[in-house]
Amino acid sequence: MWIFGYGSLIWKVDFPYEQKVTGYICGYKRRFWQGSEDHRGVPGKPGRVATIIPSEDPQQDKVWGVAYRIAEDEVPAVTSHLDYREKGGYKQDIVTFYPGEGDDVVPFELKLYVGTEDNPFYLGPAPLDDMAKQIFDSEGPSGQNKEYILNLAEALKTIAPEAEDDHLYSLERELIRLEEQAEKS
User: Fold this and answer.
1) Helices 128-137 and 145-159 sit at what angle, rounded to 10 degrees?
2) Domain containing residue 129
3) 103 has a pLDDT exceeding 80
4) How many domains are contained in the chain?
């Protein structure tokens, strides 16, 4: 089994895998429209974590991340672990993964978890400043919500410097600005 990480699974892998490949899926955009009351927020004060949404321009838009190959004997345990980890409104889907340049792997289908707009934790779009403030002020059992965004942005720049993700990088810049502003106060 292959699983695609486009959020915290890029930088916080807590399951065994046999192989990892950097690459992307087409026809989607990464957005921080999924609420998190179980990891990066608390009930009544959710944080915001990544989901993917269908793109208006499937030929142009890509979501970069990491594909992990899970050993056959580990599939039940890893699936159970990920089902629990992604319990906050995510469902499984299957997409085509395209390895980045330099990998001698051909495109293949894999599973991913996506927070769809019909789940109870879906927050949807909001102005960037509002999302950044919500993220900056949120914390849950897995830590501060801003760490999630900042770690993801740093990891993505490391694994795929060619990746374009204005939404993520705009949030990163705004969170850094809010952090600097808080330090001056």
Assistant:
1) 110
2) 2-184
3) no
4) 1
Distance CA 71, CA 65 (A): 20
Q: Coil, strand or helix: which one is 56?
A: coil
Asked whether 135 and 149 are in contact (CB, 8 A), the reply is yes
Q: What is the pLDDT of residues 25-40, one digit of tens each?
A: 999 999 999 999 989 9
Active centre residues (catalytic):
86
Nearest CA-CA partner of 166 in 32, 67, 11: 32
C-beta of residue 170 within 8 angstroms of C-beta of residue 129: no
Predicted TM-score (pTM) of this structure:
0.92
CA distance 152 to 32: 12
Q: What is the CATH number of the domain that holds 31?
A: 3.10.490.10
How crowded is residue 128: how many other Cβ atoms within 10 Å of its Cβ? 14
170: amino acid identity, one letter: S
